[in-house]
Structures are given as C-alpha cells and as structure tokens.
C-alpha cells in the first residue's frame, strides 16, 4: 500500500469537508479516508468521531449512521467539519521481565542524558502527556512527577474545573470499550518511568526526572482501545498544557480523524513522539499510523539495541522514521511499586520524549520545530552502525543541546 496515496486521500477528504458546498455526504463520507474494505471491519457502527469547525473533537453515539446523519449532522451541518466512524485499535502485548531492586540506565547513558543532568538540566517545568495505557500514579517513582490538576478536588465525583472530565486530579481515562481483564497493563507505567521516573525514590532514573507527567489513558488492560478515545486523550493532553505527547502505539488503517488531531496539536506548538512499531517492516512502503503521518510536529522513533545496532524487530523507513533510540532491554517502572525490563519501539519513543523535555527545560522559549531540529541534526552515526531511518543515527541529547544553543542562544 503506497503511503503517499493514503495520505493524499486523507487530505482530500479533509479539504472536501472544510470547503464550500458542504453536505452530510462530504463531512461524513461513507468510505472513510482509506480502503473501504479494511475500514468496515474495524468500524464501531454506533459511535462517531466529530471534528467541529472550531477544531475541537467529540465522540457521539446513535443507533446507526443513518439516524446519526439525520438527527445530529443535518441540524448542525454548518458547525461540523468532519465525521467518521469510531474504530477499534488493538495494541500488541509487550513482554516484561521483573527486575526489582536493580538499577540499569544503559539507554539514558547511551543518549548522553547524564551530561545534562550534571548541568542541572532535568526537564524542569516541562509537561509530557503519556497517551497510552494505565499509568500507576501511586508508584513511588511516578507519583512525585505527576502534573496534578489543582483545579480539581480529588475523588469527589465532580467536574470541579468544568473541563468535562470528572476527578482528573492525576490525569484522565478515556477508555470507553469495556474489557474483562482486571490486571492493569504495565505498558503505560513503563513508558512513564522511562520519561520521568524520580531516582530519589527507587532504582529507575527517567531521562527527564524533574519533568511533569500527564497520564491520558485510552488503552484498556487487554490492549484494546478506540480511535475516538485516542483523539479525546490527545485533545485533553493539549488542554492540560502538554508541550510533548508520547504515543507509543499504532492505530487503525482509517485515520483521518487521528491525523486531523495531530494537525491541531501542531497548531498549538506541541511535539508528538511516536513509536515506529515492532513488525520489522518499512513503514515507507507498508504504513502504520500514526508512525507514517510525517507531520512537521512529529518525531517517529525506531529502536536501537544494547550493542547500538538496529533491532531486528523494529520498523524502519528512510523517509518517515526519523531517528533511533534505545529500545532493547529497557528497565523502568511497572504497577505495584515494581520494575521490569521491556523491549520495543514503545520504549524507544519515551527516550526521545525525555530528551526533548531536557532540551525544552534548558531553552523554554524554543519552538517545537527547534527542539525537533536539534534532535535530528545531532544523532550519532557510526560507520557500520547506520540505522534505516531518515537521519541514519541514534539520538544524542548532549550533542542536541549544543545544536539548540546555536538556534536559541
């Protein structure tokens, strides 16, 4: 499947919905943004993602598409920019190896983070949203790093700040598809720890250990979620002041609304760090979303190994994957005051999110474009170790800081 054709289809539909001659069929095209046969199987037939003309998103329900068109779209047509079916997302399970009481920061060392820590640069005052699975906000190394919503009173069952979310004191959950697995997924907590685990309270050292985390869960314990839930989690993250959003997951093949949400984030100056995926394929040829969007505010990340080579399972792409970062045998936090090793581009992406937070804390006036430029221009490229990514290198935040100092004196 050709990536450029797919993205062109997304843009074309978005343009049709945004311009004149608006009708229910232009704002809600039945075949979505992609191949209709692929889309139909994933559609949630009674849920609809609505993007309004002011750029905001809501997820609505109706008995079916005909009823939704008649009773919801037609009366509000001029206010609506685009509609598509909500769609299911299923993330792959990441194996973990429990490793309590161990300290292993090989990845943080490899990317040069200790050099910035020694200068007092640790991610201060930078908010990073973890749009992912459950984040254990009670974990001793995570709790101090949560960006608490002080406008909320915790656990009173009320929406104190009027943002539409009840009790989002420690973040919010947007999971709308129930599942029967009572055991919390470790994925979100592991990602959060790579970014910001507070080394004063345990054995894991986050890349940006004084940054602030905004948990925004949309993936259930069984790894399932929906496109609409993801869009709402992204929107919430922006409303809470996130400068960086970490997206260690892949989406459905029908992604017009997801791309539109990323574009809205771009307009707000938010940098989105995306995992390339773990299928061992070239996403320039076989797209995976959001990894293959290629937007200006996006960095897509492949995984490097302990020996500093490309892992065999990491997705790649000389056009749409930008950098590599450590993603093999990564120690981080997991629920229940524990730690564990995991592998995946899901672990590589938060290395880059943490690196971006370090840079932004050192130069708070930098733009997302300048942070991205600093990271991409400073990678380590070792002969014989070239990575199949746009820069051919693995990130080095120490060198990135030198680039950023030239861009933002």
Model description:
This protein folds into 2 domains: 3-88, no CATH class; 96-407, Peptidase S8/S53 domain (Rossmann fold, 3-Layer(aba) Sandwich), CATH 3.40.50. The termini are far apart. The protein has a 7-stranded parallel β-sheet with strand order 6-7-5-9-10-11-12, with helices on both faces. Strands 2-1-3-8 form a 4-stranded antiparallel β-sheet. A 3-stranded antiparallel β-sheet has the order 4-14-13, with helices on one face. The relative contact order is 0.15. Helix 7 runs parallel beside helix 10 and helix 8 packs parallel to helix 9. By secondary structure, the chain is α/β, with parallel strands linked by helices. It contains 12 helices and 14 strands.
Q: What's the structural domain tally?
A: 2
DSSP E strands, number: 14
CATH fold field value of the largest domain: Rossmann fold
Approximately how much helix is present in the residues?
A: 25-40%
């Amino acid at each position: 499947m050709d990536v450029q054709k797919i993205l062109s289809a997304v843009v074309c539909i978005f343009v049709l919905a945004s311009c004149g001659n608006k009708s229910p069929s232009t704002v809600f095209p039945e075949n979505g943004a992609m191949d209709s046969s692929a889309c139909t199987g994933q559609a949630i037939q009674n849920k609809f993602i609505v993007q309004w003309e002011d750029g905001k998103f809501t997820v609505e329900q109706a008995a079916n598409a005909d009823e939704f068109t008649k009773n919801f779209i037609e009366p509000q047509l001029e206010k609506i920019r685009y509609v598509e079916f909500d769609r299911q997302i299923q993330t792959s399970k990441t194996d973990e190896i429990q490793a309590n009481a161990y300290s292993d920061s090989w990845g943080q060392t490899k990317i040069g983070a200790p050099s910035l820590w020694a200068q007092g640069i640790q991610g201060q005052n930078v908010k990073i949203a973890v749009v992912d699975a459950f984040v254990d906000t009670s974990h001793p190394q995570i709790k101090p790093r949560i960006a608490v919503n002080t406008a909320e009173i915790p656990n009173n069952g009320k929406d104190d700040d009027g943002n539409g979310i009840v009790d989002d004191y420690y973040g919010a959950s947007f999971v709308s598809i129930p599942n029967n697995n009572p055991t919390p997924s470790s994925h979100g907590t592991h990602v959060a720890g790579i970014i910001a685990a507070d080394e004063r309270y345990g054995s894991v050292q986050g890349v940006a250990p004084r940054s602030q985390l905004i948990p925004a869960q949309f993936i259930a314990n069984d790894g399932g979620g929906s496109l609409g839930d993801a869009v709402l989690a992204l929107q919430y993250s922006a409303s809470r002041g996130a400068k960086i959003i970490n997206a260690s997951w892949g989406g459905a093949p029908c992604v017009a609304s997801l791309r539109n949400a990323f574009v809205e984030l771009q307009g707000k100056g938010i940098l989105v760090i995306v995992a390339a995926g773990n299928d061992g394929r070239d996403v320039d040829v076989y797209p995976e979303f959001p990894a293959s969007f290629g937007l200006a505010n996006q960095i897509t990340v492949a995984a490097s190994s302990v020996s500093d080579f490309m892992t065999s399972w990491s997705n790649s792409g000389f056009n749409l994957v930008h950098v590599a970062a450590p993603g093999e045998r990564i120690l981080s936090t997991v629920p229940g005051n524990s730690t564990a090793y995991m592998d995946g581009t899901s672990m590589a992406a938060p290395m880059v999110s943490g690196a971006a937070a370090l840079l932004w804390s050192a130069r708070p006036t930098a733009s997302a474009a300048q942070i991205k430029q600093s990271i991409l221009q400073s990678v380590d490229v070792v002969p014989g170790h070239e990575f199949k990514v746009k820069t051919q290198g693995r990130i080095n935040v120490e060198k990135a800081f030198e680039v950023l100092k030239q861009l933002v004196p």
